[in-house]
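Private note to self, pasted from the team thread so I don't lose it. Backbone tokens:
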């Protein structure tokens, strides 16, 4: 029996008493992935990206491990909720326009001390001040550096369009703006190199593209390491008491951790290891989060139909954003239908061994987005479900 076949048998036994659709997290794989992230971070703490987990119980589990410290959140509302729940170090990875949230933040000392907001434009400071509603608490501020690689005088850009702050001078000027404005304090710098951390460099069947990605990433790492160090020096000249410099992501942990100026690493997807993280030379993880759909039809030889399945991930639309049938191995989508909102036909010889009610196991394309489809996660240890915990959605929260 192959390792994948053994996993399927184990998951089927563990969930035999549960009807699909359902989602699981294999805790052995989850913990092994966490240990690998810590090893690659080389002693620097890892701030957990909550967007990639979206389950309080699992955030608590990973933060209880040595090598992890703090949360990187994705909205202000989520951050306030987490802070009220006892998480005391929450960095919001994106700017916000949540005026009600800012009023709450600036009126509560506990929240203000636990939550750090992201800034890359003076207008964001004005928005916060206008939302204070009498709140006098000092707002902790993190400045975001644009990590994109710019070539040919800026005519070619590689990387996400995030912050407008690209040069050391621009980031230092923004730090001065914050420092001069009462009620704000610069405490950190964040630089997320998504074109390095979030792009696979070993795509199956695409050797030329993979080589091009590796060359691009090597160039980008060198350029960013030099520029990030210069940014940190420039900001420290304005803010000598800078508390942290955050960088990296699951696909670049060891590279970013090697930079002396970086004090902490961000990672989250590497805990669940969704399908987009199969194509990396820098690491390999164990799929930990899966969902199961029930067989509800057998339309003919070599085909079964499962209930649901149309769960595309965010990003540029394409086949790589779709979940993949994982267990039993050998199933594939009908190219004329793909995964559907209500039903999904699957083709392949394993279909002939599946009965009505049997489970087909899938892997989602992006980590935490799976939790937007399910109210709870069944935690599997060995061949048993040892706990069932709510996702954000199961606790009544869909923050975006």
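Design output:
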């Amino acid at each position: 029996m192959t390792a994948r076949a053994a996993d399927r048998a184990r998951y089927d036994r563990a969930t035999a008493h549960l009807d699909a659709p359902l989602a699981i997290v294999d805790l052995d794989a989850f913990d092994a992935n966490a240990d690998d992230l810590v090893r690659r971070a080389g002693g620097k703490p890892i701030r957990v990206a909550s967007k990639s987990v979206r389950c309080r119980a699992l955030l608590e589990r990973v933060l209880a491990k040595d090598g992890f410290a703090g949360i990187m959140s994705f909205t202000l509302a989520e951050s306030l909720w987490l802070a009220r729940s006892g998480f005391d170090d929450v960095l919001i990875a994106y700017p916000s326009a949540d005026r009600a949230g800012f009023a709450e933040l600036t009126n509560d000392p506990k929240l203000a001390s636990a939550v750090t907001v992201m800034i890359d434009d003076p207008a964001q400071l004005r928005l916060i001040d206008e939302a204070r509603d009498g709140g006098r608490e000092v707002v902790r501020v993190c400045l975001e550096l644009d990590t994109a690689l710019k070539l040919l005088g800026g005519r070619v850009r590689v990387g996400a369009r995030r912050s407008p702050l690209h040069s050391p001078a621009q980031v230092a000027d923004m730090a001065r703006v914050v420092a001069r404005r009462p009620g704000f304090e610069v405490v950190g710098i964040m630089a997320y190199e998504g074109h390095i951390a979030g792009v696979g460099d070993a795509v199956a069947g695409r050797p030329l593209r993979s080589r091009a990605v590796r060359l691009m990433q090597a160039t980008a790492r060198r350029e960013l390491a030099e520029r990030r160090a210069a940014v940190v020096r420039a900001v420290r000249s304005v803010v000598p008491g800078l508390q942290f410099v955050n960088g990296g992501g699951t696909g670049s942990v060891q590279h970013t951790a090697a930079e002396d100026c970086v004090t902490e690493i961000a990672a989250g997807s590497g805990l669940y290891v969704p399908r987009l993280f199969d194509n990396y030379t820098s690491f390999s993880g164990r799929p930990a989060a899966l969902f199961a759909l029930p067989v509800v039809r057998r339309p003919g030889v070599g085909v079964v139909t499962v209930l649901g399945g149309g769960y595309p991930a965010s990003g540029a639309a394409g086949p790589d954003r779709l979940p993949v049938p994982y267990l039993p191995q050998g199933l594939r989508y009908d190219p004329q239908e793909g995964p559907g909102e209500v039903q999904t036909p699957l083709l392949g010889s394993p279909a002939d061994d599946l009965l009505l009610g049997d489970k087909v196991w899938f892997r989602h394309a992006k980590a935490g987005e799976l939790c937007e489809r399910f109210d709870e996660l069944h935690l599997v240890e060995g061949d048993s479900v040892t706990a069932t915990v709510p996702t954000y959605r199961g606790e009544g929260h869909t923050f975006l």
